[in-house]
Design a protein that fits this description.
- With about 325 residues, the chain is an alpha/beta fold.
- It folds into two domains: about 40 residues, no CATH class; about 260 residues.
- The protein has eleven helices and twelve strands.
- The strands form two sheets. A ten-stranded mixed beta sheet has the order 1-2-3-4-5-6-8-10-11-12.
- This is F-box domain-containing protein.
Length: about 325
């Protein structure tokens, strides 16, 4: 498709491939935010085509390019422009703050095509944006003709917690209620960047600081009727002095990954956990794991990940 040019101009034309290269270097979001699409129809048509053919789109680029999520007019314009042109996108990654903006957008025609995968990310930086912008899922779309996503084949949620993480538990429940409309089986990745870690704590402390504990999110998701396919529990910096207390709720998934030093395991219960099929843990001495997994009748194998040489050893169970 040729680039449209102003025939009345006496200035030399920039070759098409250079224009494409400029847009690729700048990025479609910054290109749009800078107003280059309004310089000429040629620039605008290139941007349209770049978004039209995109199979993957990472909405974190909107935040990285300095577009202020707390300024609704500018932010809504950028989101509307981008989403309305992502006709063929199959895989999308977006922070929770952007998902909230899309939900609250006044343009109810915004709708994603069928997605093979959607990854929603929640971390401290995004949490600050949510608090500053007073975003919420209270005003979520519910009408059939205004659903934001047509369908999502694979939904993944990534949460990184630290000591200052303060996403309200009620807001997370509203998020879960909203997003489970499109998929009731999730992959959940929890990353710990706290100083204390995920070791054993009395229930009262977990309640008071529930935003920083993995088990809070797992319990909430289970309570809301969402099935966990993969559950990954990770320590952010590889600190071997921190440990994780293995609650029974962590066995309510199909595949469990524990990239964390295991401390105590929950005491035996009569409840059965038939969903758990496999577990991958990093190599470590621990004598209580067999007892912990004894009530998982469908567990076929435990894989031991040797961190030093990145090898995996399968252990019959």
């Amino acid at each position: 498709v040729p680039i449209l040019r102003d025939s009345s101009s006496q200035l030399p034309d920039i070759p098409d491939d250079i224009l494409y290269h400029l847009i690729d270097c700048i990025g479609p979001v910054q290109f749009l935010h800078s107003g280059w699409d309004r310089v000429s129809r040629g620039f605008s048509s290139i941007l349209d085509r770049r978004l039209n053919i995109a199979k993957d789109f990472d909405f974190r680029s909107i935040l990285c390019d300095g577009i202020d999520v707390s300024c609704p007019p500018t932010f809504n314009f950028c989101l509307t422009f981008i989403v309305s042109r992502l006709w063929n996108v199959q895989r999308a990654t977006m922070p929770m703050s952007i998902l909230m903006r899309l939900v609250q957008s006044p343009d109810e025609s915004l709708r994603f095509p069928r997605l093979k995968s959607l990854t929603v990310i929640i971390n401290q930086d995004d949490n600050h944006l949510i608090a500053r912008s007073a975003l919420s899922f209270r005003e979520r779309k519910t009408a059939k003709d205004t659903l934001l996503f047509t369908s999502v084949d694979e939904l993944s949620l990534e949460i990184e917690v630290n000591d200052d993480f303060n996403l309200p538990h009620s807001e997370f429940r509203r998020f879960t209620s909203f997003i489970k409309q499109f998929s009731t089986e999730w992959n959940l990745r929890l990353v710990d960047a706290t100083r204390k870690g995920q070791g054993w704590c009395p229930p009262c402390e977990i309640y008071l600081k529930r935003e920083s504990f993995f088990v809070t999110y797992v319990r909430c998701i289970n309570d809301m009727g969402v099935l966990l396919n993969q559950l990954k529990l990770e320590e952010c910096n590889g600190d071997s002095n921190k440990s994780i207390h293995m609650h029974h709720e962590y066995k309510k998934c199909n595949h469990l990954y524990v990239l964390y030093t295991i401390g105590f395991t929950a005491s035996a219960v009569e409840e059965s956990f038939p969903a758990l099929q496999s577990i991958t843990i990093k190599e470590q001495p621990h004598s209580m794991l067999h007892q912990y997994f004894a009530n998982a009748p469908s567990l076929a194998s435990i894989r031991i990940l040797k961190i030093d040489d990145d090898t995996v050893e399968s252990v019959n169970f």
